[in-house]
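Example 9 (inverse folding). The structure is encoded as follows.
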């Protein structure tokens, strides 16, 4: 017998039937790295998402404990846990959306690129599983360094013959969430603010476009310098405050759920779902770049151009592209050898 918390197919079908009667759509979502600092609150929040009918929680440690715990929440989604590489295929089969926060986080003094050595291999293995078991799933990649792990994922999928650039998205949502929050020092309510953040997800590659903030606002150069620096170094601010205990987990889980929910609303067919993400792109000469994208039934329906930039942002863009080019190349060569 499976453990009590491990719901059987009959339970899944019973719940699916109940939901179908209510006309509610349901998507199957897997979280890889579900027992981690991001994974646990992310799993909890996804269990609360009414668009999720089945939630698979995979990790190499402690997946049964997290699954047992979350399975007691009286929300609609059915939860199942998967532990260790031998259960990866079962975790992935049939999934519509796969969210990946697996991998090691930074400690003070490290850059995100310092994580490449360990996380590149983890992302490669997980993406090989996706290519085999759910090649049509939308992939939300959180593991750092995102600027390199997204190219790694793309190369793995290309090698397997399953690559669809519309379905692979590097999660940069936390940069937008931070930008919206930090704008409060200027008297703006974070709930009403939308700052596009483009480029990538590390240091100078994080490029907030404050000239395009909604509602339209004008900032002094001093305010722009303060905000740009704080947004670019928001991750380091948390890493230092946690003093060796890891990097952002709770705000990241919040951002990941905001982004995953947008992907699911797109899959459902909602109109006008637009968020920033690091994706395959022709907006610049680089093969990947973060900009606003419109999400639809097939993943990315449209990649938006940068829009008008001021002189400060144009200089920032050149710096961002220079660093991004190296990070993308590093990810590509990791697979191509
Ligand atoms: P964590 O160490 O708390 O959790 C990571 C989890 O991944 C652990 O439970 C671990 O067992 C699991 N794991 C390790 N190898 C695995 C494998 N092969 N398969 C499945 N699971 C595996 O770390 P965290 O704080 O949750 O951060 C996870 C990653 O997310 C880090 O790389 C971090 O840098 C990144 N991150 C990205 C963003 C972003 O904005 N994109 C924000 C915060 C953190
Ligand atoms: C973040 O922006 O918080 C994450 O990328 C984690 C980190 O290492 O800073």
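The amino acid assigned to each position is listed next.
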């Amino acid at each position: 017998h499976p453990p009590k918390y491990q719901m059987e197919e009959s339970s899944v079908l019973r719940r699916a039937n109940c939901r179908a009667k209510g006309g509610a759509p349901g998507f199957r979502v897997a979280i890889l790295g579900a027992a981690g600092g991001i994974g646990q609150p992310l799993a909890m929040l996804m269990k609360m998402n009414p668009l999720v009918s089945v939630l698979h929680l995979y990790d190499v440690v402690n997946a049964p404990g997290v699954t047992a715990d979350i399975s007691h929440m009286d929300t609609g989604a059915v939860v199942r846990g998967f532990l260790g590489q031998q259960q990866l295929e079962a975790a992935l089969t049939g999934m519509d959306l796969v969210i990946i926060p697996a991998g090691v986080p930074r400690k003070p003094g490290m850059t995100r690129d310092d994580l490449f050595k360990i996380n590149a291999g983890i992302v490669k293995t997980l993406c090989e599983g996706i290519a085999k078991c759910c090649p049509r799933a939308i992939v939300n990649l959180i593991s750092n360094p995102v600027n390199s792990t997204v190219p790694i994922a793309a190369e793995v999928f290309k090698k397997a013959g399953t690559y669809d650039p519309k379905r692979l998205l590097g999660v940069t949502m936390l940069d937008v969430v931070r930008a919206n929050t930090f704008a409060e020092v200027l008297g703006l309510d974070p709930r009403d603010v939308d700052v596009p953040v483009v480029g990538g997800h590390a240091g100078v590659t994080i490029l907030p476009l404050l000239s395009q903030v909604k509602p339209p606002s004008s900032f002094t150069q001093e305010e722009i310098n303060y905000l740009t620096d704080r947004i670019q170094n928001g991750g380091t601010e948390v890493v230092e405050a946690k003093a060796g205990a890891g990097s952002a987990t709770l705000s990241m889980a919040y951002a990941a759920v905001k982004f995953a929910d947008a992907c699911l609303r797109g899959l459902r067919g909602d109109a006008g779902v637009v968020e920033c993400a690091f994706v395959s792109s022709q907006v610049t000469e680089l093969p990947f770049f973060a900009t606003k994208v419109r999400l639809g039934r097939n993943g990315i329906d449209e990649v938006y151009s940068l829009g008008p930039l001021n002189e400060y942002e144009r200089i920032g863009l050149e710096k961002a592209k220079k660093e991004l080019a190296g990070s993308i190349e590093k990810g590509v060569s990791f697979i191509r050898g």
